[in-house]
Amino acid sequence: MSKLGTYIVESKNELFNKVSWPTWSELQSSAIVVMVSSIMIALVVFGMDFVFELLIKQAYDLLK
């Protein structure tokens, strides 16, 4: 159990004294970057899906 206790004490020490936490404005700007990036990736995936659907429909129409 002493290893677990040592781990908990060292983890607490690291979180409170060694980790540099972002400020509120840094956190907000990072969240905005993640949100914009997610929307852009979603739009790219949507576009690829839409084009692929059109190509598959045309391929099926050729086989009729």
Describe, in short, the structure shown.
This protein is an all-alpha fold and 64 residues long. 89% of the residues lie in helices and 0% in strands.
What would your notes on this structure say?
The protein has a domain at 23-64. 89% of the residues lie in helices and 0% in strands. The protein has helices at residues 2-18, 24-63. It is elongated, with a radius of gyration of 25 Å.
Give the topology, please:
Blueprint: H1 2-18, H2 24-63
Report the radius of gyration as a whole number of Å: 25 Å
Helical stretch count?
2
Structural class: mainly alpha
Q: Estimate the helix proportion, in percent.
A: over 70%
Strand content: under 5%
Gap from first CA to last CA? 72 Å
Rounded mean pLDDT is: 94
Per DSSP E runs of 2 or more residues, the count of β-strands stands at 0
| Low-confidence sequence ranges | none
Basic shape: elongated
What's the helix-strand series? HH
Entry keywords:
2 helices, mainly alpha
